[in-house]
Structure formats: C-alpha cells, structure tokens
Design brief:
The complex is a heterodimer of chains A (239) and B (238). With 239 residues, chain A is of the alpha+beta class. Chain A has three helices and ten strands; from the N terminus they run αββαββββββαββ. In chain B, α4 packs across α5. Chain B is elongated.
Chain lengths: 239, 238
C-alpha cells in the first residue's frame, strides 16, 4: 500500500514537471500559471509612430498561436481588461491608462485617462466615461482599423513579430543540457517564425500622455538619456 | 398717433428684447445642455439617446461594470522568463504592482526575499552553471552599462517598464543609446543576453571566451517591419 502511494506520488510529480515544462516551452515570456490562458501577455512594444509626435503601443497576447485552427479559434476574452499603463512622474505608478475591452466583434477603447492616486494598483474599473473609440476586430482575411478619434486603433490576429531561439534557451537554463550555450547561426531556430498572436495596437498623440519624466535609467548609472515615460501592459480579469 | 405715444411701447419692446436675449444666452450655457443629456430622447448633437455629441460617450447599452484584478503584466522583454527561476515566482511577479517589486517582501513562499534579490540569485546561478571548473571563478562584475550586480538587478526589477522617449528616436538599444522604446525590429533578446552575460566590455561568454551566451544567433528572418499602421504583418495562413 505504501509503495503504491509512493508510485502515485512519483508519477504525480513527474507529470507535474512534464506539464510545467510543456507550459514553459510553449510560452513566450510569462509564468506557467498564465501560459495558454486568455490573460497571457506575449509581448509589448512601444515606438515612435509615422507621425513623430505620436507613440505606437503594441501588446501581443496568447502567443505563440500555431497557423490554422489554433489561430482561427483564438479570441479576445470579454472578461479580460487589457491596459497600457503610463507613468509620467517616475514613481512606476500608472498616472494615465489606455484600456481595451472586447464586446462581441468590437474592441472598445477607454482613455488615455488619468488614474488618481487612490485608484492606482492591481484592481481597476473600466473607465467608461473615457470611452475614446472602437474598432471592428480584424479577422484572418479582413483588416479593420479606426481613425475616427485622436487615436488609431487595431485589434486582431497578426504574425508574431517576436524572434528568439526559445527551445535552446530553455535547455540552457540549467547549464547541463547545452553547456556550449546557443547554437551556431546555421543551426539556431526561431521558435516564433511560423506563429501568430492576437494584437492590440494604439497610436496615440504624445500630448495625451502628459509630460515625460527624467529617464528612469539615470537612477541606475545611465547617463545622457532623454526624458521618457515608463510604460507597461497588464491584463486584469473580472472578479 | 403722435410720436410721443410710440416711444413708450418701443422702449418697452427694446428693453424686453435685451432682457430675453441675455436670459437665452445664460440658459444655453448653464441649463439647456444638461437637460438634453438627461431627457430620455435623442436630440441636439447626440448620436444616441442622451449620449454622443456634447453628452457623454454612447455605450450602446453595453455593460463594462465590475472590478478587474491584475493577472499578468509585462514591461521589458524577457525579464520574468530569464530572471524568475520558477513558476511560483513568475506568477508572483505577474501579480505584483510594478512600483512594489523592489520592496515586496515576503514574496509568497520566498521568505524575506525581494525580486531584486531573487534576480541576483538567478544571475549568480547562471554564472555558476557556465563556470569552467578549471579556470578561476568568474563573477558578474559589471555589464556594458557599468552596472554591478546589485544596481543591475534593482534596475531590472524596480523599473520594469519600457522607457519611451516622446522626443527623438525610439529603440531598445541602438549604438550607445539604451532604453528609449522598443521597435518591432529590435533584437531585444540579444540585448538582454548581452547585459546578462557580456561582462563590462560585451565579450564575455561570446563563444570564443567560454560558451556562447550573448546572442541566440536568431534574427527577424523574413518578417517585414516596414509596414504602415497597424505595423504588424497579416497573420500567417496555411
């Protein structure tokens, strides 16, 4: 009896390890508990738009999605609030947010809207009074963008822009599976080369984000850097 | 009718006209706008009943109510992936507020450790794994930014956001400039690895001096990053 229990325990933990490893391998950036769920953020980009006084914010979600049925069946979760958090004072608390939330086949956007001190943090309401635009969610074959407001908006599936030899990195984590490190350029493989993601893209005029603070790197030994917002993305699930 | 008889009604009419016009202007600014936004009918500039135009936005009866709690968060690329050593810590990181990351203690199941100290441990372990046992011990010393291990891990954990410059070019790393944004084309994982394994001059663990850890040797391949809005390529199809 005791032995049987032991075997169960061993096979249980082995199975746990296997599941953990599979989840780990299939996720681009995040921890196991959110991997392959609808809150899973794959990546975040922020760069100057085609108009230099605009910033483009891109969040990719639920990636990497295989080509075909996996991509076709992926969708934004209407219970999940997607947020761009902008700190314009340098304390790494969100002073301004842009929110996105799906209803049916449309992505609704709220903000940029100021979040006062008592509402900063891990719990949020949708800032309905700051509804700023909406866009039909694009499909595999149809691209929809909205330019009706000050913001340009997009939501839908896209090719995954992220590139990395993730499998090799995973095998390098403990130093024993790949003691020589990364592969040669000829052998290296981009794990994301044939993948899609769900993406939300917002192009926003900088003057709606407030004045950028001193660059955060100046507190950590970096010099001669321009003023810069601190921006991160989050997903928040309805309770 | 004499001219005198005409004066009285004319003056009265004129006064009344002035008074009415003042009152109308007042009403327009202070009263009428509010009334039309709550009168239960679509009027004025409204695009729906009591919404749109000068009133609040139209939600079309959609329900966005409720409280939403953070389950995932991301600033710089790969921080959690590279520096949080297990699922529990990655999860704790995703559930923490950015501003709390350097002081949050205890992290669930981690005693008195803070995220910078967890990251320091990860970094030290990477070095231990790849230390050649026949050579003198290698430690992090400093990265190409001149940061020692304490400053570097504090920087990673406590300011984990993309720094995005509204003025001038934006990139994760371009020449001597670091952290002014992140373009789609930026090879951010090579940058991340360089800061972790490159040592003070960027050549440590370059494949010549020990194992090759500062670049994964993968580039963006056949991706097109020169597109107009929404900037990302159409999804791949079979």
């Amino acid at each position: 009896m005791k032995n049987k229990t032991k075997i169960y325990l061993y096979s249980g933990s082995l199975l746990g390890c296997l599941v953990a490893f599979l989840l780990m391998s299939s996720d681009q950036i995040d921890g196991n508990f959110v991997a392959n769920t609808t809150v899973d953020i794959a990546d975040f980009y922020a760069f100057e738009g085609q108009s230099p006084d605009h910033t483009v914010l891109v969040v990719t979600l639920q990636g990497p999605l295989s080509i075909g049925s996996v991509t076709e069946q992926a969708g934004f979760d209407p219970e999940v609030l997607i947020e761009f958090n902008i700190d314009n004072t340098g304390d790494f608390k969100e002073d301004v947010v842009i929110q996105a939330m799906r209803r049916d086949s449309v992505m609704y956007f709220f903000g940029p809207v100021v979040i006062d001190q008592e509402h900063q943090g891990l719990v949020r309401e949708v800032q309905v009074e700051a509804l700023s635009g909406q866009v039909q969610i694009s499909t595999l074959d149809s691209l929809y963008i909205s330019e009706d407001s000050a913001l340009r908006l997009f939501a839908g599936p896209r090719r995954d822009p992220f590139f990395f030899d993730q499998n090799r990195f995973n095998s390098m984590r403990n130093g024993t599976l790949a003691p020589e490190g990364f592969s040669s350029a000829a052998e290296a493989q981009d794990y994301f080369a044939q993948s899609n993601v769900l993406a939300v893209v917002v192009e926003v005029p900088n003057d709606l984000l407030g004045t950028a603070p001193a660059h955060a790197g100046t507190s950590y030994g970096l010099e001669n850097l321009p003023n810069a917002y601190n921006i991160w993305v989050s997903t928040k699930r309805k309770q | 009718m004499t001219l005198k008889k005409l004066y009285i009604p004319l003056v009265c009419f004129g006064l009344a006209a002035i008074l009415f016009s003042c009152e109308d202007a007042d009403d327009f600014n202070n009263v009428i706008e509010q009334v039309t936004c709550t009168d239960g009918i679509q009027n004025g500039e409204e695009t729906g009943i009591d919404c749109g135009g000068e009133c609040g936005p139209c939600l079309n009866g959609l329900d966005f109510s409720g409280l939403y709690v953070q389950e995932d968060a991301l600033g710089r690329p790969g921080i959690n992936l590279v520096y949080s050593p297990n699922a529990a810590l990655q999860n704790a990181y995703n559930h923490s507020a950015t501003s709390d990351r350097s002081s949050l203690s205890p992290i669930q199941g981690m005693g008195q450790a803070t995220f910078p100290s967890v990251f320091q441990t990860s970094l030290t372990e990477y070095y231990a794994f790849y230390q050649d046992p026949n050579l003198p011990e290698i430690t992090f010393d400093a990265n190409v930014l001149g940061q020692d291990i304490t400053v570097f891990t504090e920087f990673l954990a406590a300011s984990d956001a993309l720094q995005v410059a509204p003025e001038g070019p934006t990139s994760f790393h371009s020449g001597d400039v670091w952290f002014t944004g992140r373009r789609l084309s930026d090879d951010v994982m090579d940058d991340t690895l360089l800061l972790l394994f490159g040592g003070p001059d960027g050549t440590r663990f370059d494949g010549v001096n020990g194992p090759k850890l500062i670049s994964d040797q993968v580039d963006s391949g056949d991706r097109n990053f020169g597109l107009p809005f929404p900037y990302l390529e159409a999804p791949l199809q079979q």
